[in-house]
Amino acid sequence: MLVLTRKKDQSIVINDNIEIKIVDIQGDQVRLGISAPKSVSIHRKEIYIEIQDENRKAAKAKNIDLNDLLKE
Hints:
By secondary structure, the protein is an alpha+beta fold. It has two helices and three strands. A three-stranded antiparallel beta sheet has the order 1-2-3, with no helix packed on it.
């Protein structure tokens, strides 16, 4: 893991097309601004983990035959 020190209004650049800027610092909270192409997904980690869990659950779900549902 790369650890960098930045101050308010300073940035880091990733791969020439993603910029992460320190927008504000208040106490123990840091506000980040992220500029990236629309094709790049950006999520808070806790949301990303929930999405991955739901994807795993969906992949394990049994296929449902629509004809069986119509019989009921």
